[in-house]
Amino acid sequence: MLFRSLAVGLAAQDTLANFFGAIAVLMDKPFGVGDQIKVESNEGMVEAVGLRSTRIRSSEGHLIAVPNKTMGNASITNVTRRHSIKTTMNLALPQALSNEKVRRALAILREVYGGHPMTEEVWVSFNQFAGANLNVTLVHWWKGIDQQQQLAGMEEMNLAAKERLNSEGISFV
Questions:
Q1: DSSP 1-57
Q2: How far, in Å, CA of 71 to CA of 85, rounded?
Q3: Model confidence pLDDT, tens digit, residues 109-163
Q4: Exposed / middle / buried, residue 27 (Cβ in 10 Å: 0-12, 13-18, 19+)
Q5: Could you tell me the pTM of the whole model?
Q6: Residue 19 phi, psi dihedral angles, 5° rounding
Q7: What secondary structure does DSSP assign to 50-94, as a single string?
Q8: Residue 170 near residue 112 (C-beta atoms within 8 A)
Q9: Do 101 and 169 form a contact (C-beta atoms < 8 A)?
Q10: First CA to last CA across the chain, in angstroms?
């Protein structure tokens, strides 16, 4: 009898934790159905928020049920509510490149990536010597959150930068 009461009590504790987690999610509204979120090691599109769990569809198509007690206590990243997409690239120039060509490469990268209409901000910096190479870091913020548009735009800018650099006799390692 004691063990049965203990089992019922433990089950009720878990059920109550999930219920209060659901209440916290519904009250706080860190995300809604249709939002893309990251929670712990899970990422995907929210399909439903129930009393016991929140269901997330991963990009691989898997349905993940995350207990609401976890949702109530976890750090949740709502990817949908971001205002831009950040891309960081590290590019290597040969160390034998003249200072003039390095400056020209940096200017071209700033022009190409900074001149795109969907660029919110861009940073280009020759930031370190890396063995036989010169490391250039490029950080680009894309206005908007449509990842397919961002990927197409980055491809467009990457090809334009490559073409411009090649025409100046500058190549990456």
A1: -HHHHHHHHHHHHHHHHHHHHHHHHHHH-S--TT-EEEETTEEEEEEEE-SSEEEEE
A2: 25
A3: 999 999 999 999 999 999 999 999 999 999 999 999 888 999 999 999 999 999 9
A4: exposed
A5: 0.70
A6: -60, -50
A7: -SSEEEEE-TTS-EEEEEHHHHHHS-EEEGGG-SEEEEEEEEEEE
A8: no
A9: yes
A10: 73
